[in-house]
Specification:
0% strand
Length: 102
């Protein structure tokens, strides 16, 4: 298999693996043990994938970028999900206040 295809496969796995970890990260206290684990737990798995696919050291920065993008995507998805849960409650409060007097 071509080196570029192997790199793209490992990038997709790195990105996908870090999405749920990013969702977990935003729910933990910043700089706590679990925050640190949520960021770094994927590193050994990505290392094993990189070595097993025969990718050289030049692939490391590319894989770091894909992992960081996965973390950011997961964090934003988690925050958006949290915002969507609170929105219906706000709209109920507005509709109740519009119909009656204070």
């Amino acid at each position: 298999m071509n080196t570029i295809i192997r790199l793209i496969i490992v990038m997709i796995v790195s990105y996908g693996l870090n999405i749920p970890l990013g969702m977990w990260r935003v729910r933990t206290k910043k700089f706590s043990l679990f925050w640190f684990i949520s960021i770094h737990i994927a590193v050994p798995l990505i290392f094993i994938l990189r070595v097993s696919e025969g990718l050289a050291y030049w692939a490391i920065p590319v894989l770091i970028v894909s992992a960081v993008l996965g973390q950011l995507t997961g964090g934003r998805l988690s925050l958006r999900k949290k915002e969507n849960k609170t929105e219906p409650e706000l709209s109920k409060q507005i509709s109740v206040n519009e119909g009656g007097s204070i």
